[in-house]
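Per-record layout

source: Planosporangium flavigriseum
name: Sulphur transport domain-containing protein
length: 138
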Amino acid sequence: MRTRGGILVANIIAGLALGYTVGNIGFGDFAELNRMFTFQDLRMFLAFAGAVAIIVVVFAVLRVRRTPGRIHAGVIPGAVLFGTGWAISGGCPAIPIVQVASGYLPAFVTIAGIAVGTWLCRWANTRYFRFDTGSCGQ
């Protein structure tokens, strides 16, 4: 039987395993991320490409289909802001947690930026844009 507690424990174990792996292979290192974004070292880029290839195969085997539709109005500016923040700070939302756990305390600035950016996005959406958030809800 799946309980909330069981799911929480499974998520904690999976998160710790992912954090341990990411930390040990160097993907939590700002210099490694910088080399990826400047195409000086393709190791991380190829790891991401490999992950996408695996997901494509899994989706094909499971026959997952997505009906084409309009692109959500917030996808493009959101992707640009996300990528810019990732390139500047050296961390997508999960990596700063790995960096803090590894002793890289400046990652707290990134975590604060993520929190402030999320709050600003919600504030701007309710005040100015009114994008349909769908299942992401406010």
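summary: The two ends are 30 Å apart (CA to CA). Residues 4-130 form one domain.
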